[in-house]
Amino acid sequence: MEVSGFEEPDGGLRATFVRIVKNAAEFDPETDEVKVKGLVQGLDSGARMFWVGSQRVHVPGAMRLPAEGEAVEVYGYLDGDLLRADRIELEEEGLPEGHEAEVAGVVNTVDGTTFTLDGTTVDASGAGFEGGTAADLAPGVRVEVEGTVENGILVARTVEFGAEGEHGD
Fold it and tell me: Residue 151 CB: number of other CB atoms within 10 A?
C-alpha cells in the first residue's frame, strides 16, 4: 500500500493519497522494497538510526547519515519493525523564495491568521478571503492560497475556502 499525507498536530497522518500496490498476503518483507518519506527525527549517530514518522530506520556504515530535521526519502527492506536502508535521497523542502505560489490543501494548525496548509506555513494577515473569513480557518478545512514566498513562509494574497485545486487535492 502507498500512502501519502501530512502529519497532524496529534501525531496522526492526514492521508492525501492512498493506493494499493500489493495486498498483505502478497507482500514479502525480504524481497519487496519499502519507501518512507519525511523528516529525520530522533537521530542516534552511534547506533546509525533515526525515525521518519513512526518508522525506525537503520543506516549501514557505508552510507551517509542524514542530519536531524533533514527531509529524506528512504528505500530499503523491513526487518521486523526496522527499515534497513539501501538508499537515502535528500529532498528539497518548501517553496522557492520570492516566487508566486498557489497551494491547495487541508489546514493542519491555526494560530490567528497564521496557519499550516499541508505542511506549508501561511501568513494570511493581509489576505483577502473568499467563501469565508479568517475566523473560519480551522484544522481540516480545505482552502486554496495564492501569494508570495518570503523567508520560507507563504504570504497570502487570497485565501479561498472549499477549493479543490487543479489536481483534485
Answer: 9
> Does residue 105 share a domain with residue 39?
no
In 2-127, at which residue ranges do the beta strands (DSSP E only) sit? 2-7, 13-19, 34-44, 49-52, 55-58, 71-79, 82-90, 100-111, 114-117, 120-123
Using DSSP, state whether 110 is helix, strand or coil.
Answer: strand
Residue 35, pLDDT above cutoff 60 = yes
Alpha helices, H only, the chain? none
Query: Is-contact 152 97, C-beta < 8 A?
Result: yes
pLDDT of residue 165: 45
| Predicted structure pTM score | 0.50
Give the residue from 88, 100, 113 showing the smallest Cα distance to 36.
Answer: 88
Regarding whether 154 and 114 lie in a shared domain, the answer is: yes
Q: How many domains does the chain have?
A: 2
CB–CB of 137/144 below 8 Å?
Answer: no
Could you list the residue range(s) of the whole structural domain that residue 56 is in? 2-90
- For the stretch 76-100, pLDDT in tens is 998 888 999 999 998 765 566 778 8
Query: How many Å apart are CA 103 and CA 106, to the nearest integer?
Result: 10
- Nearest-angstrom CA–CA distance, 53 and 39: 7
